[in-house]
Automatic annotation (TrEMBL):
Disulphide-bridged cysteine pairs: C861-C888
Keywords: Cell adhesion, Cell junction, Disulfide bond, EGF-like domain, Membrane, Phosphoprotein, Repeat, Signal, Transmembrane, Transmembrane helix
Domain Fibrinogen C-terminal: 519-571
Endoplasmic reticulum as UniProt keyword: no
Entry GO terms, CC: membrane; paranodal junction
Organism (species): Lates calcarifer
Domain of life: Eukaryota
Subcellular location: Cell junction, Paranodal septate junction; Membrane
All copies of domain F5/8 type C, residue ranges: 1-115
Protein name in UniProt: Contactin associated protein 2b
Domain EGF-like, residue spans: 483-520, 889-927
Cross-referenced InterPro entries: ConA-like_dom_sf (IPR013320), EGF (IPR000742), FA58C (IPR000421), Fibrinogen-like_C (IPR036056), Fibrinogen_a/b/g_C_dom (IPR002181), Galactose-bd-like_sf (IPR008979), Laminin_G (IPR001791), Neurexin-like (IPR003585)
NCBIfam families: GGGWT_bact
PROSITE patterns listed in its UniProt record: EGF_3, FA58C_1, FA58C_3, FIBRINOGEN_C_2, LAM_G_DOMAIN
Amino acid sequence: KLACAGGWSPLDTDRYQWLQVDLGSRKQVVSIVTQGRYSSSDWTSKYRLLYSDTQKNWRPYLQDGNIWTFEGNVNSEGVVRHELQHAILARYIRFIPLDWSREGRIGVRLELYGCSYWADVISFDGQGVISYRFRSKKMKIVKDVISLKFRTTARDGVLLHGEGQQGDYISLELRRARLQLSINLGSNQYGSIQGHTSVISGSLLDDDHWHSVVIERYRRNVNFTLDHHTQQFRTNGEFDHLDLDYEISFGGLPVSAKPSSGGRENFVGCMEGITYNGDNITNLVRRKKVDTSSFRNLTFSCTESNSSPVFFNSTSFLRLPGQSDSDTLSVSLSFRTWNPNGLLMFTALADGWVEVGLTEGKVTVYMNVTQRKNTRIDISSGSGLNDGQWHSVHLNALENYAMLTVDGDEASTVRTAIPIQIQTGGTYYFGGYFMHTNTRSSQRSFQGCMQMIHIDDHLVDLRAVEQGHIGTFENVSLDMCAIIDRCVPNHCEHTGRCSQTWDTFSCNCSGTGYTGATCHTSMYQQSCEEYKHQGKNSGSYWIDPDGSGSIAPFRVNCDMTEDNVWTTLKNNLSPQTSVTSADQEGKAVLQITYNVTDEQVLSVTGSAESCEQYVAYACRMSRLLNTPDGVPFTWWVGRANERHSYWGGSGPGIQKCSCGIEHNCTDPKHYCNCDADLKEDAGLLVYKDHLPVRQVVVGDTSRAGSEAKVTIGPLKCLGDRNYWNAASFTSPASYLHFPSFRGETSTDISFYFKTSSTHGVFLENLGTTDFLHIELRGSVILFSFDVGSERVELSVRSPVPLNNDQWHRVEAEKNIKEAVLQLNGQYREFRPSPPQGHTRLEFYSELYVGASSGQRGFLGCMRALKINGATFDLEERAKVTPGVNPGCQGHCSSYGMHCRNGGKCVEQYNGYSCDCSLTAYDGPYCTDDVGGYFETGTLVRYDFLPEVGPFALREVNSLSGVSVPSEANLTQEELVFSFSTSSTPSILVYISSRTQDYLAVVLRHNGTLQVRYSLGGLIEPYTIDVDHRNMANGQPHSVNITRNLREIRLQLDHYPVSTYTLPETSDTQFNLVKSIFLGKVFETGQIDPIIIERYNTPGFVGCLSRVQFNSVAPLKAALRSGLSTPVSTHGILVPSNCGASPLTISPMASASDPWHIEAAGAVFPFNEDKASDGGVDRNSAIIGGIISMVIFTVLCIMVFVIRHMFRHKGSYHTNEAKGAESADCADAAIIVNDPAFTETIDESKKEWFI
């Protein structure tokens, strides 16, 4: 007793000591308190508890699916109290020391706390059945509460059963030592809806220990609780009442049961505390108020089992004596285990040995007889015997044969001949862990339980073994079977398949879409948006929006060809499906099914920025919506089975079609084309809370000649708000807090972050006993949490700094098997979880994102925070939290590399876009070629406009790092383009100047390429002839010309780069670049006559694409009419990408580009002092300007006259909301302005025409 002198301290301090407490009768123990022995150095630091009702068949106290080890004392005076997670119900308690004082011996003072317990116990012998008759013949029950406790060594038997004439029933029975609850509240008369529902719980329930069952039902909702583990389910069918007739029976099937219910065994064992809807059945039995006539001998006590189990671990063996020098060997036993391999029995013969073991779940017998030159005999029987069930083995060897029988199946007995007569050695080993002195056994030690051990047909008295009268043993637990089913409950999530050995379990996740030790982590990204930012292209992908949540992954189509990302869900309805087979009311119903569930659809639409679905109704004599005030002929059913009577292009509450909104219906008296029996009505449904379309009901197809065809397009949703849900932490003391959540056995956390700080706490959850923490420390991410009394820490070090203002992803997971921390999807640390303490975490404080407990909080941006599959809305919480701002900038630092070919990354609130304006490419990532087909005589001209005054261009760095002076003269340039043609000769690109300098790329008569440079200082232009191949072969070719001072680098297609050098007498400046010509030259001033005479006629015929001179893309400017650039086109130019292959040479970066035009609108400078002699160019410019002004004036006059001739005036009055200025009418204005609008539009419009 605590606080008293003395205490218990055994004479021997070893692992075989125990202290047993007799409570006098069964008690309910809820806590234990320990203290060391008084005034000594003796205490117990770790211990276990066993309990029993009979001093036999002890059961260890279990918690979290393990034999629980209690933390004891660290000195002799301290008091340590443990509240039991589950109360112990027993008479005898054993205290088993596992570790003790290093300074002394085992010592303890202990107290047990609890309360008295009493219950009526009834023993069932397999014949008797309790029949509880109802007060009325038929019971129609909407609510049930049934509870009982049972104890048995049988693995099959009916615990309760009730049924009704209408087919309703409820049944609870043991099947292979598992408990199965079956309920049927009724099936419909056509049999299309079956009400049968069956749920299985528990395992190893034939262990002769008490197990409690509670069944709670309200209508179709059922709670099924077995030993504190509750399964919640909903019965099948559509009925709520359980209709039972006459009675409900306990212990077996009643005599009145239907013949179809036969073939099931009655229960053998004990029950207590049986209650049915408030009636204490066991008490009624004792008072003889219930029919028990089927019992041969009704007893109110629980008889003891004759079997005494033996528990073996990997270091156990049991040595028992038998007859020696006998010519007959007979051994039998029962065993249960999870391991597929293990030694059951070994005995040495006078000449040889016999071994019985498990090999891959089969019982195998090896007999080795040394007299006959090591004659070896192998026999085996059974399969899958490592299933945790009891299995019996009987080996008989006599005279000249041996027999092996498994599970008493005589028909499957295996016989084999023995060449000589055996002679027993007299010593038998069970379990396998012993000194292999004269043996050659290769079997591993047995882990599991044995009972009913017979040697020479005599049952071994294990109590005599325990008392030391016969045999010896080591590390064996007698009168106990500590087998644990580690797969019940199943810790493998998402339908993962659990398998186990004695020590652990493993999960097979194949085919589930999840991975990890417990199949917790999804293998797929959460959305198309996330795939896009991994650099993926459009295609079909699996997505999992809730990650580790309950929604299974599903396949969608991702459209990433535009700037936005669309997620598409297809349905089963073919376009233009004809409407036929109307019902009796004249309605034809079209069911639309999708390849996903309602939950999966909601997970997409819920996080999308917007959704749309195209619908079309093609008609002939088949009206659609009738009038805005009338009953619609046709409607559609969307999410939540809601009925809607608006069509594509319209909105809720507006019973119109698109043409009714836009006032362009074929018949102005109607608001749908089909209401006038004409044409088609089509448009987009855009209210995502109503989508997708599940059903279309067409109501006007019965008239003569009626015909209708319906098209329901796929559901398309834009973006993923959860992926970009972000918050910015602007102060080390700022944080967001969320309500506390109950942690699960498996907990996963993932988020993105970017920061310029080296330290900070990302998030933390402080509980009364449990703790969770993720932190940044320099280049290390730290993840720490508590499991029981042990703290686990994982860390991942990044090879690059994490405070580089780029996005990094953190994924942390802990489960019953392991803890994993992952950074950026590639740096990972794994650590096995401690075996104890995996009770679901109870967090009593709030979740802090950022600083908490006075620590330095995270400083930077965080987004896409998910815990256990649920997204935390950082933006909403940041709106009401000081020091934290919603949203985050800086996506380009992480994803800017996806902008290709010199495209510039532009920050957006919820992402980024690529600015391709300074490149020769288009598309979301600047990867789409821009090109055109040139007919004969077609040319494109791009002019660099002069600027009066100081030069506008700053000094910029070249590709090679050499600086370019701030004036307009070029010492370097880069020209890139692709072409394909079959005609020669021709000019591909010609770049002129206000001097005689030029650069030309031409095709000669033989199809070879020539590059001509004239920079002054030379009598003739410097030419580069590429004579090794014909480029006019109709195939696409790419050209890259880069010059830096005198060095010219040329690359054709994917051939190696060739280097050329301008002569020393040549200038190095390309002076006053004026124009770029593509296809043909049409220029005033002095031009190299060779260019005109040899190559300019008839002009280039073929395709040009990707044309870029430094940052100028002349062909793209010509083909994009929206660009205000000084470009002109003569002749026919047809857009085409020319079939060019992807370019592998990056264009010059804008930072190195002398042609880079700043946002302020600076243009290329022109210094008049450097114009050519004689003023020819200046005069030409003046004349051209005058002609341009005249043309402009004439055009303005023509536009004014035309406008005056066709003008009309009017006033338009309506209740338009904001947004009307961009809409065509009031209906459209309200729809544009308020997507949630649900009221009918006021139609009062007035118009005057003058």
